[in-house]
Amino acid sequence: MSFVFKLARDAIVSQITWPVETSNGKRLKETCMICFEDTDATQMFTVDGCFHRYCFSCMKQHVEVKLLNAMVASCPHEGCNTEVTIDSCGKFLDPKLVEIMSNRKKEASIAVSEKVYCAFPRCSALMSKSEVLQYTRTVMLVAEQSGARKCVKCHRFFCIYCKVPWHFDMTCIDYKRLNPHPAREDTMLNTLATKKRWRECIKCKHVIELAGGCYHITCRCGFEFCYTCGAEWRNKKPTCSCPIWDEPNIIHNRQRRQ
Q: Of 127, 153, 178, at which residue does a domain stop?
């Protein structure tokens, strides 16, 4: 009976719209199926694609919760997987949250090995390697050979190899020789990585922590390497002579799973 009642409620309540007399004349009211409050029809949000409707307040809370959990927001109607478009969220979300949603969607669409971030800390815009190269080619024909890239957001140049502002009149080797001391933030990260025994993937440069298990690491970019020395694994076999595992580490991993 409860299931039948739910179907009847979903079919009927979602279509309830009626005129209400106000000081400014008649206005349409509609019932939100989340909070069951009678809401002005102009304050109801329609999900593109499935046309389910909810009040702005409920949709705002729904989308914000998804953002906090690093998830893409979909229609809150039970069993409906229609994605809530970023453009439509501008009706009830703060512009900063809309930007976060846009960045999340873009980040999910770019392969790990293709991701590039602007080297300027106050920008740090996310781009794909092909996107930033194509953008740079509009102003620099030798962009691919030089390593210079122009950020699509702040429009400043940086080096895709050194991950620093573009060094116009010197090579990467010369720049590192003249600037041997890394930035304070990089120094802190390197110190923490050394202390925690983190390893950096030589292909995508992501930092990885081994919580337990063997020392054969498969990075999310697909590159396989030895966690002990960083040597590449080829055809599921190590190219180094480091131990593949040690008993305390395997036991620790099993205990965590239990």
A: 178
Does 50 qualify as catalytic in the annotation?
no
CA-to-CA distance for 139 and 116, rounded, in angstroms?
19
Q: Which of 123, 214, 221, 240 is catalytic?
A: 214
pLDDT digits (tens, 9 = 90+) for 141-181: 888 888 999 999 999 999 999 888 999 888 999 988 888 77
Kindly give, in sequence order, each residue whose CB lies less than 8 Å from that of residue 32, ignoring residues fewer than 6 positions away: 39, 44, 53, 54, 55, 58
The contacts of residue 87 (CB under 8 Å, 6+ apart) are none
Domain around 81: 2-106
Phi-psi region of 191 (alpha: psi -120 to 50; beta: other; left: phi over 0): alpha
Residues 21 and 96 placed together within one structural domain of the fold: yes
pLDDT of residue 248: 60
Query: Is there a single domain that holds both residue 147 and residue 100?
Result: no
**Whether 95 contacts 104, CB under 8 Å:** no
**pTM (2 decimals)?**
0.52
How far is Cα 35 from Cα 155, in angstroms, rounded to an integer?
45
